[in-house]
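User: Could you go from structure to sequence for me? I need the amino acid at each position, not a summary. Structure tokens:
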């Protein structure tokens, strides 16, 4: 049987602080030319969401038209959508479908959301028919 790591029983907040300190130490050990990039990369929040291919193409089209990165377009559109939801201008009421997953009570009816986009409901989105 292996030895127990005494750090396994630490409070999650303490573990997070220690992890952050170790990350900063690793960055300090890099050459100066790489430290700026490492700090910038560490500050980013990378999140993965399933996005239908048709919607992805529309985001890329907007990005190209505006001379922006697709990530910038997504940030703007997502922030706008959240603001509209918080102001009660967006509702999920007629879009919810009972989920088969035990993790979520509902999923969104992607066919209704993507109506009007080419290739609506193609791979990349979980669409139930």
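Assistant: Here is the amino acid at each position, in order:
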């Amino acid at each position: 049987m292996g030895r127990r790591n005494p750090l396994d029983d630490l409070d999650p907040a303490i573990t997070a602080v220690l992890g952050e300190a170790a990350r900063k130490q690793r960055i300090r050990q890099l050459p100066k030319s790489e430290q700026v990039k490492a700090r910038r990369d560490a500050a980013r929040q990378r999140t993965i969401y399933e996005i239908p291919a048709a919607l992805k193409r529309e985001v890329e089209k907007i990005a190209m038209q505006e001379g922006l990165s697709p990530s910038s377009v997504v940030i703007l559109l997502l922030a706008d959508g959240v603001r509209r939801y918080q102001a009660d201008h967006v509702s999920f009421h007629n879009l919810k479908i009972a989920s088969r997953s035990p993790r979520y009570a509902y999923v969104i009816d992607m066919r209704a959301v993507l109506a009007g986009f080419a290739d609506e409901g193609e791979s990349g989105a979980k669409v139930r028919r």
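One structural detail worth keeping in mind: The mean pLDDT is 81.
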